[in-house]
Design a protein that fits this description.
Number of helices: 4
Helix content: 55-70%
Distance between the termini: 49 Å
Shape: globular
Low-confidence stretches: none
Strand content: under 5%
Largest sheet: none
């Protein structure tokens, strides 16, 4: 089903980028975000693997996924950008420099 495929792509993309948000106490994609080479390799590798799954029909079929049009990929990228941007905005408004574990800095 196309809707399930869209959800799969969107959730995987958002969760992979959330790794950067949850590992920093500052702006997630600020200066030096690429320095954690292990995390960068894991995220890029996972995104590449997702691309391979969609490019190879038997893998796509084994997971019950559909071919996603370019608009679906654009929606997934937009959802990831909105999610990360929203979390960064909340962090900036609150003025908090805590990890996104749910704990907030108390005065």
């Amino acid at each position: 089903d196309l809707v399930q495929t869209q959800m799969f792509v969107t959730l995987i993309g958002v969760h992979l980028l959330m790794a950067y948000v949850s590992r920093t106490t500052q702006q997630a994609f600020g200066h030096g975000w690429w320095r954690n080479r292990s995390l960068l390799a894991a995220v890029v590798g996972a995104l590449a693997l997702q691309g391979v799954v969609f490019a190879v029909a038997p893998l796509r079929g084994a997971l019950g996924l559909e071919v996603l049009p370019w608009q679906g990929w654009a929606v997934a990228a937009g959802a990831a950008a909105i999610t990360i941007g929203s979390m960064e905005a909340v962090r900036a408004v609150r003025g908090t420099t805590t990890r996104s574990s749910g704990s907030a800095a108390r005065p």
